[in-house]
Amino acid sequence: MLKSNRFNLDVHITNHASQRMSERKISVDLIIDLIETGKTKYKDETRLWISKSYPHRNDNLICAAVVLENVLVIKTVMHNWKLMEK
């Protein structure tokens, strides 16, 4: 089981997110780093995006869409991501 020290929650990666990680060659180690050190943008109290630039990748910016419940649920993982500002 993965654990986030930053959020003090266990981490659950959905099947959809796992498939996207595989397609985009994003490792579990990178996801852990993203969760622990990435920039957060909250949609509301429980939904947010966590993003980070990884210069060694040619598909920067990596982002995870997550939900904070009794665990941190990674719903999907994106690349070449840009936050749309309102």
What does this structure look like?
- The chain is globular and about 35 Å long.
- The model has no long low-confidence stretch (mean pLDDT 91).
- The chain has a six-stranded mixed beta sheet with strand order 1-2-6-5-4-3.
- The longest helix is centred in the middle third of the chain and has 10 residues, at 28-37.
- The chain has helices at 15-23, 28-37, and strands spanning 2-4, 9-13, 39-42, 47-52, 62-68, 72-78.
- Strand 5 (62-68) and strand 6 (72-78) form a beta hairpin.
- The chain has a single domain, classed as YaeB-like fold, CATH 3.30.2310.
- Helix content is 22%, strand content 37%.
- The protein is α+β, with helices and mostly antiparallel strands and 86 residues long.
- It has two helices and six strands; from the N terminus they run ββααββββ.
Strand order of the largest sheet: 1-2-6-5-4-3
Mean pLDDT: 91
Strand content: 35-45%
Structural class: alpha+beta
Sheet with the most strands? Answer: 6 strands, mixed
What is CATH's topology name? YaeB-like fold
CATH class: Alpha Beta
Low-confidence stretches: none
- The assigned CATH architecture is 2-Layer Sandwich
